[in-house]
Amino acid sequence: MDNSSNTPPKHGAKLTDTHIRLAHGNGGVYMRELIERVFAAHLSAQAAGLDTEADAVQVAALPGAMYISVDGFAVTPLEFPGGNIGSLAVHGTVNDLAVAGATPRYLTLSAILEEGLEVAVLERCVVAMAEAAQAAGVMIVAGDTKVVPRGHGGGIYFATTGVGQTDPGLQLHMNNIEAGDVVLVSGSVGDHGAAVMLAREDFGLHGDLLSDSASVLPLVKALSGLSGVHFLRDPTRGGLATVAYEIANATGSCLRLQQNQIPVRDSVSSICEILGYDPLYLACEGRVVAVVKADVSAIVLQRWQQLPAGKDAAIIGRIESAEALVLLETPLGGERVLEALEDDPLPRIC
Amino acid sequence: MDNSSNTPPKHGAKLTDTHIRLAHGNGGVYMRELIERVFAAHLSAQAAGLDTEADAVQVAALPGAMYISVDGFAVTPLEFPGGNIGSLAVHGTVNDLAVAGATPRYLTLSAILEEGLEVAVLERCVVAMAEAAQAAGVMIVAGDTKVVPRGHGGGIYFATTGVGQTDPGLQLHMNNIEAGDVVLVSGSVGDHGAAVMLAREDFGLHGDLLSDSASVLPLVKALSGLSGVHFLRDPTRGGLATVAYEIANATGSCLRLQQNQIPVRDSVSSICEILGYDPLYLACEGRVVAVVKADVSAIVLQRWQQLPAGKDAAIIGRIESAEALVLLETPLGGERVLEALEDDPLPRIC
């Protein structure tokens, strides 16, 4: 090829556009440049074999049963205290695999970018994605980019699919849950929801509030091999209350929570009081709810509290063989039924 | 639970909303209803074990090496002659796996829906998706739905990730391509791009033009076990010209195409002439380009022409050990260099 303007950029050239345009999604020279300069540049250090030319990527087979999970991300703003849509997109799918008892191995990434997006914002999100993937020990093995016209997107929408392999030390299923089981949470609830809300509007209430967005793998791995761990789930959209409701509904049991045992940061309580939200319905992105046999609950608590991510872990309730509902015992000794989430307290939280 | 308005809909109840609202993406009752009534209702017949409660789904391990591919879909309009975004989202990822020499087994689906989308449109797309998956023998094993506010989406954005297993009868890689190899295409080019363009604007030129959106698995499987099949690719965004350019660029060889051998429907030629597009750059969604050893090219052509999807297959060019470029021989004996696609001839085609 000659060096005319039709020549594709050579490896190592800079991406000269500062903002995404439609041509970055058309399958041609501009798209290849974007993929190489932004996505592959940051993600391929971590996935040495990343083949940006291939339609499909060959990966090593996983022994035993496989787990698959998918999650889409449309959070606004794209960047928030404690993370961005890039780190969130890794943690979300890694955590879905982790709480199913799987060790995440491979991730794929679909990016739907909006014309006019700042390339610098995209790059920061991809860097955070690479760091999160590295920390979780998962490889981003395939990607796809589309660009939609200005006014038809949210800057960045990501979707990640994860493939993992069974951890034989974890036999988790909702069907394992029995009356008498104890319910724990690995840390304070509602941090992510509240942090995103604060990043979205300026309430003059920032303080030290950060999203809890993180991989929960260390929390899950700490329980591997421990008999009596019946079920794990990460409370994301709909928060702790929604997980509690799903457990009650699926098992036909009563889940009784003690309100004064549920860890909620003061800053989260404050913002919820002002705006009329209930922190139990706000998303977490780095917490685990565990349902375990009563006689191992102290061990689970101890193992979690020894980890930085689990220092605020607490026993928050128990399963009873009553009708399927979620009861919240209030500090004053009363109790109320926690209802399933209907209308959206806070859209676009993940 | 009592029968108050907070009770979740029982299985079998109807989705009463006719349009998507933000609450359909919040993790609560409305989202569960949407997933059960629209997604699971159509997709679970085809994936009997689909667990709409689980964060991650366990699937049988695949023997041998695995292939993974991901594709995002933002086509407008959502429905077009010959398909819709649902069938396209299956075919796109199935085809990426197929041309890599893999047999698709599992798909995941991320749906980013826009507030205000008609549920009936979504349902038609999900029905088409289920039919396409069934035909391709692939199971949709996991899904995720997000809802973005009106004015921040395109009605439906889908992303599909596919996991496949190696077909030992196909050893395909761009590195296999050698000078002297013959280039074939399995059918007419540009049908999908032209059909979407016609669906988007009313040019008074509809005729019989349909998207070629289809699984290419039958075309690929017809070549399994045949020695000398070096490389396959499906020409999507950027069309045949972009695949030709990628082959030339990656192999450092000249790809010489014969214009009068490349099948282009009259209706596609007409619309391209009127609007100034080149059909060689328009997307196909159900065609395969093959690069094969010269001495098996007649067998490949014959096997393809015996299939309904391959009846218009043709030998369209050859690989030469000259410099890396794509030459198009014109019917009058001249030749011109086909350039890499730069600006977008037709955005949001897939």
From TrEMBL, chains A, B:
Q: Per the database record, which ranges form the PurM-like N-terminal domain?
A: 64-165
Which Pfam families does the UniProt entry name for this protein? Answer: AIRS (PF00586), AIRS_C (PF02769)
Q: Which PANTHER family match?
A: CARBAMOYL DEHYDRATASE HYPE, HYDROGENASE ISOENZYMES FORMATION PROTEIN HYPE
State what protein this is by name.
Answer: Hydrogenase isoenzymes formation protein HypE
What InterPro entries does this protein's entry cite? HypE, PurM-like_C_dom, PurM-like_C_sf, PurM-like_N, PurM-like_N_sf
Record the organism: Candidatus Venteria ishoeyi
| Source taxon at top rank | Bacteria
* Homology family: Belongs to the HypE family.
Q: Name one GO biological process term.
A: protein maturation
Q: Where is the PurM-like C-terminal domain?
A: 178-323
CDD domains, sorted? HypE (cd02197)
